């Protein structure tokens, strides 16, 4: 596996409603032309266990984790959390991902940022129900999440992404948005 200087990993399971946010962000980012030192990965539902396979502390300088988290905000709100602010047990996704403790251990070697979205609803993995649709609020938060990610990696793409009424390609925008 070839490792990159900047790694962006989307976490979540698209079968469980808004939990598919991370993979949906990665899917949209795959449409962008990013610098050669950036790799994007859909870590899927196994991301908490496999995320560290995407990293090499000798090469990787920055990790961005894209996921949902309940931070008591309006559904679709985006929050950027620096790895330096992470404390064991400080971030718990709706499925109780315990990867924060692991992220706390690497933050000294790899600059870590979490880009989180407040979900509207997440189906519990114990339920028989499957919902492959993001809620409207979370779907509409994808462009903002991408903007935050691009700012975090220092890329000024100069675009907006419009996802209303299905997926549409990025459109160039002017300075007065």
What do you see in this structure?
The protein is globular. α1 (21-29) links the parallel β1 (6-11) and β2. It has helices at 21-29, 47-50, 99-106, 136-140, 142-153, and strands at residues 6-11, 38-44, 62-68, 78-82, 111-117, 159-160, 171-172. The longest helix is centred in the last third of the chain and has 12 residues, at 142-153. The protein has 5 helices and 7 strands. The protein has 177 residues and is of the alpha/beta class.
How do the helices and strands follow one another from N- to C-terminus? EHEHEEHEHHEE
Biggest sheet, open or closed, and with what strands and sense?
A: 5 strands, mixed
What form results from the Cα inertia axes?
globular
Helix content: 10-25%
Number of helices: 5
Mean pLDDT over the full residue set: 79
Low-confidence stretches: 159-177
What gap, in angstroms, lies between the N and C termini?
Answer: 40 Å
Radius of gyration (CA) equals 15 Å
Structural class call reads alpha/beta
């Amino acid at each position: 596996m070839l490792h990159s200087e900047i790694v962006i990993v989307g976490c979540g399971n698209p079968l469980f409603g808004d939990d598919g946010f991370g993979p949906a962000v990665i899917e949209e980012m795959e449409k962008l032309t990013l610098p050669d030192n950036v790799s994007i990965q859909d870590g899927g539902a196994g991301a908490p266990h496999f995320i560290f396979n995407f990293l090499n502390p000798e090469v990787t300088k920055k990790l961005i984790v894209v996921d949902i988290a309940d931070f008591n905000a309006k559904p679709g709100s985006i929050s950027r959390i620096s790895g330096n602010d992470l404390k064991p047990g400080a971030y718990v996704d709706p499925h109780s991902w315990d990867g924060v403790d692991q992220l706390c251990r690497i933050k000294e070697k790899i600059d870590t940022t979490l880009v989180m979205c407040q979900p509207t609803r997440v189906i519990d993995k114990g339920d028989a129900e499957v919902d492959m649709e993001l809620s409207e609020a979370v779907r509409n938060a994808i462009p903002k999440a991408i903007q935050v990610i691009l700012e975090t990696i220092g890329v000024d793409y100069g675009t907006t992404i419009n996802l209303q009424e299905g997926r549409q390609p990025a459109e160039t925008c002017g300075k007065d948005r």
